[in-house]
Amino acid sequence: MTPTREAILESLKEVYDPEIPVDIVNLGLVYDVAADGGRVTVTMTMTSPGCPVGDFLAQEVERVIRALGDVETVRVQLVWDPPWSPEKMSVQGRKILGW
């Protein structure tokens, strides 16, 4: 069975920005997840347009989604609008950072 949006979001909590000890979901980098049959699209951003780990994070996103099984394609769409800001972080993410 194709993974649900909720299962995909949960799996994305395994992906961490190597510079920040918070997963990309709680960091607020994931803007949207769409699953249509075996096709998954993740719309996300980085903490800054010049983020040096963008390619790494996109590869990790694809890896954890494919590990769920029944996925034909994974598309990671990087967007810069709206720009990321610390306000996009979850309450849990803020707690991890002591904010």
Classification by helices and strands: alpha+beta
- General form: globular
N-end to C-end Cα span = 39 Å
What kind of sheet is the major sheet? 3 strands, mixed
Count up the helices. 3
Strand order of the largest sheet: 1-2-3
User: What proportion of the residues form beta strands (DSSP E)?
Assistant: 15-25%
**Overall residue-averaged pLDDT value:** 93
Low-confidence stretches: none
Oligomer: single chain
**Share of helix, binned:** 25-40%
Topology, element by element:
Layout: H1 5-12, E1 30-36, E2 39-44, H2 54-66, E3 73-78, H3 91-96
Describe this structure in words.
The chain is an alpha+beta fold and 99 residues long. It is 27% helix and 19% strand. The protein has helices at 5-12, 54-66, 91-96; strands spanning 30-36, 39-44, 73-78. Strands 1-2-3 form a three-stranded mixed sheet, with helices on one face. A hairpin with a 2-residue loop joins strand 1 and strand 2 (39-44). The chain is globular, with a radius of gyration of 13 Å. The mean pLDDT is 93.
What are the defining features of this structure?
99 residues, alpha+beta, three-stranded mixed β-sheet, 3 helices, 27% helix, 19% strand, globular
Concise synopsis of the structure shown:
The protein has about 100 residues and is of the alpha+beta class. The chain contains three helices and three strands, in the order αββαβα. The longest helix is centred in the middle third of the chain and has 13 residues, at about 55-65.
